[in-house]
Design a protein that fits this description.
- The longest helix has about 40 residues.
- Helices cover about 75% and strands about 0% of the residues.
- It is an all-alpha fold.
- Helix 3 packs across helix 4.
């Protein structure tokens, strides 16, 4: 019995030594410390909002996890939208609406007539393209921009901004639709086409141009 007690005392003495206590007293890592502080902060806020809520400490972990998941989802959506816009802007910068000499040599009235013909055939993408070119060449005749085969819609937008910012913003909106239909192979619905066509019609009508019924 005496030997057993002595052995127990020896073991307790050994376990009190520094090299053994380090396993119990090791400092927490940065992530673990941050996590504990975050849970503590959320628990404090919950207790302030709901004084009668007894499980604020345990609930804070679930809430914190939910917040992290939500932030990750928001960042993922933002990243997706940024990447999509960058790709789209690159496409828009490289595409030239006037694809041939014929496109440039036609008058805006001829483009309107061709747009109306294609509309009667329900060729909405083709009609959209000629309507947009009609607007572009109309602005050219007004000397608000200079239509050239090598220019992109960004070039035209920059030129219009120097003349009339409101017209430039309207042009940019219509150019985005035109780009999506012509280069993005967007499936255009009849009602979308009619909205686009009406906007072009209004631009022409405001300046006394006939041709779009």
């Amino acid at each position: 019995m005496l030997n057993a007690n002595k052995a127990r005392d020896d073991i307790e003495e050994i376990l009190k030594r520094k090299e053994y206590q380090v396993y119990y007293d090791h400092p927490k890592g940065i992530i673990e410390t941050w996590w504990d502080k975050a849970k503590e902060w959320i628990a404090t806020q919950l207790e302030k909002l709901f004084p009668s809520f007894q499980s604020a400490s345990s609930a804070s972990s679930a809430i914190l996890i939910g917040m992290i998941v939500m932030v990750i989802m928001i960042l993922a959506v933002v990243a997706y939208l940024l990447i999509r816009n960058v790709k789209r802007n690159r496409l828009l910068r490289n595409q030239k609406p006037l694809q041939s000499v014929k496109d440039r040599n036609w008058t805006f009235v001829q483009h309107i007539q061709e747009a109306e013909r294609l509309k009667s055939l329900k060729d909405y993408p083709g009609s959209t393209r000629h309507l947009f070119l009609a607007m572009l060449l109309f602005y050219h005749e007004k000397k608000w921009l200079e239509a050239r085969i090598w220019k992109t819609n960004w070039d035209y937008y920059d030129e219009l901004r120097k003349v009339n910012k409101q017209n430039a913003d309207q042009f940019n909106e219509l150019a985005q639709f035109f780009e999506d239909v012509t280069y993005g192979e967007r499936n255009i619905r009849p009602e979308e086409f009619e909205t686009f066509r009406t906007k072009i019609k209004n631009i022409m009508a405001e300046r006394g141009v006939e041709g779009i019924s």
